[in-house]
Design goal:
This protein is an alpha/beta fold and 300 residues long. It contains twelve helices and 13 strands.
């Protein structure tokens, strides 16, 4: 058999192989595909020559897959499943408008999700896809229509809407405060730190807070460190330690009593949160409503 070709076979040839493999008969495959048995047989021969492997063993009752044929059928079936899924998704997208919003994960889970039902009330006919990410969004390589970002420096060419400034303040779980009852919790409880990498310089840390409090040399305390704000909040709720929590992101935990404010002194973040989008996103159905909803939510 000749050496395999690097070119992909025609989709019609692959379909003939798939149907013949599933039915175990070239004649039945020909009937289903509205072709002659000779045409299907020729397509199978072409495919075998192109792949450089025999795919079928001919028998008196029809055809049987070789081991190579079984292997190839698995790939073909998976490829057709993906094509069918893509077709279904495109049909759904055509019938139901959708907006795709990218956001920092903590904002998505702690600020947007508790209010997500409001979007359905305001725009019942527009689907909303929410993606959490820390990486800079490439609007040409992703389905993103909008992004909620920390500061505006990452997207200098995009249109933007200021959402809100945030602040941090010390909070703890009731269980942690109970464990340190009768002691100065700020002097003895473990501290929860956030590691935001390069963006960390815009987030007040415990050293900054103690300095603002007038404690120049805070005591050495055990600590935990997290790179995700949502993990740090969950750790504080679990009683792991004291957290400098962003007020907007811990609003539900404070309202439920899962966290309580340990000291009223708060420090502002150095940058606000923005909603950003390329000009083309405004042509999407519901885009004005999304900007309006997020702006109202930020100001509420």
């Amino acid at each position: 058999m000749p050496a395999p070709s690097p070119r992909l076979p025609k989709i019609s040839v692959i379909q003939s192989f798939k149907v013949a493999a599933e039915l175990g008969s070239l004649a039945k495959a020909a009937a289903q595909l509205a072709l002659t048995p000779a045409a299907v047989s020729q397509q199978i021969r072409q495919l075998e020559e192109q792949l450089g492997s025999a795919l079928f063993v001919r028998t008196q009752s029809g055809v049987m897959l070789t081991e190579m044929g079984k292997e190839y059928l698995r790939y073909v079936t998976e490829a057709f499943d993906i094509l069918h899924l893509g077709q279904q998704n495109l049909r759904h997208a055509a019938s139901t408008p959708r907006l795709t919003l990218y956001s920092l994960p903590a904002l998505a889970s702690k600020w947007l999700l508790p209010n997500i039902a409001q979007w359905r009330e305001q725009c019942p006919d527009i689907d909303l896809a929410l993606h959490g990410t820390h990486t800079q969004v490439d609007f040409n390589a992703t389905p993103a229509d909008f992004v909620i970002c920390f500061g505006e420096d990452r997207y200098p060419q995009l249109d933007k809407q200021l959402l809100f400034f945030n602040e941090v303040l010390p909070v703890a779980s009731p269980a942690l405060l109970q464990r340190f009852a009768g002691q100065d919790v700020l002097q003895h409880a473990p501290l929860i730190h956030l590691d935001w990498g390069n963006e960390g310089r815009f987030l007040p840390d415990w050293r900054s807070w103690f300095e603002a409090k007038g404690i120049d040399d805070p005591p050495t305390q055990p600590s935990f460190s997290f790179n995700l704000t949502s993990l740090a909040i969950d750790a504080a709720v679990a009683g792991a330690g004291l957290l400098l929590g962003q007020r907007r992101l811990i609003a539900d935990e404070l309202a439920r009593g899962d966290l309580v404010i340990v000291d009223p002194l708060s420090l502002p973040l150095s940058k606000p949160y923005f909603l950003a989008w390329p000009q083309r996103s405004l042509s999407q159905p519901g885009s004005d409503a999304l900007i309006r909803w997020l702006t109202q939510l930020a100001h509420s």
